[in-house]
Amino acid sequence: MEWLTRMTAAIDYMEERMTEKLDIAEISKTAYSSPFHFQRMFHMLTGFTVAEYIRNRRLTLAAQELAVSKDKVVDVALKYGYDSPESFSKAFRKAHGITPSDARDSGAGLKAFPRIAFQLTLKGDKEMDYKIVDKPAFTIVGKSIEVSMKEGENFREIPRFWQQSNSDGTVAKLCALAPDKDVLGVCLSSGHHKETFYYAIAIESSADAAGGEFTATPIPALSWAVFTSVGPMPGAIQNVWKRIFGEWFPATGYEHADGPELEVYPPGDTQAENYRCEIWVPIIKKP
């Protein structure tokens, strides 16, 4: 399957260059993807970021070299991208629980972080219903924060952002700008190649409604795959997100269109077992 081929090519590219400077833009090219989408896909599928994968693999390879060779610690540190023995020792101890020097001792316990191998697992226990919607360009107005995918921080930071925005009146003010529109959670590219993205709480409205308190962001005309989440927040929608990247994209003829991703929240009790909201993912048909 093409999806497996692309992700495997990206892993091959990284593995062949573990002693070189790796750039996320070049890695994502091997998967025919944008840096933002590739990092989102990688994180959703594996539970860790591209940078975390590279760091763990380098520390695994470094430990193997220290255990079987007589190379100096400083040379191994430099080989795997560390500027100093001190920074290498700190990362090594965190990963393996011992110092690089201790790794040379007979019987030293080391941890191995294996190379990833992607495979498609077809899960027939639960269908993924969706619809395709073409929507013209529109504008959102709201507030945003930059969140990190490192160690799953985004799954904790975003719920806190919602809690704060509800308690300080931000959500109520946005609803007042467009009473006929649902509140949105919007995932936007950070515009650089770090393992972060911007998450906005917003509402569809005109740019002049932003005033001095909110920021207006144009959303281009796109085709969207729309999925329904049923259940209490944030667990229910987080599970749907994981299934979109882990099951739906690999099994369909669609690719991410490299646009923003939307969460659409109608009024209601977000903690109810039957609360329904939607995820809108921008898509294009594979050529």
UniProtKB/TrEMBL annotation:
Keywords: DNA-binding, Transcription, Transcription regulation. The keyword Cell division does not apply. The lineage of its organism: Bacteria, Bacillati, Bacillota, Bacilli, Bacillales. GO terms for molecular function: DNA-binding transcription factor activity; sequence-specific DNA binding. Gene3D superfamilies: Homeodomain-like, Regulatory factor, effector binding domain. PROSITE patterns: HTH_ARAC_FAMILY_1 (PS00041), HTH_ARAC_FAMILY_2 (PS01124). It comes from the Bacteria. InterPro entries: AraC_E-bd (IPR010499), Cass2 (IPR029441), Homeodomain-like_sf (IPR009057), HTH_AraC (IPR018060), HTH_AraC-typ_CS (IPR018062), MarA-like (IPR050959), Reg_factor_effector_dom_sf (IPR011256), Tscrpt_reg_AraC-type_HTH (IPR020449). PANTHER family: RIGHT ORIGIN-BINDING PROTEIN. This is AraC family transcriptional regulator. Residues 8-106 form the HTH araC/xylS-type domain. The keyword DNA-binding applies. Pfam families: Cass2 (PF14526), HTH_18 (PF12833).
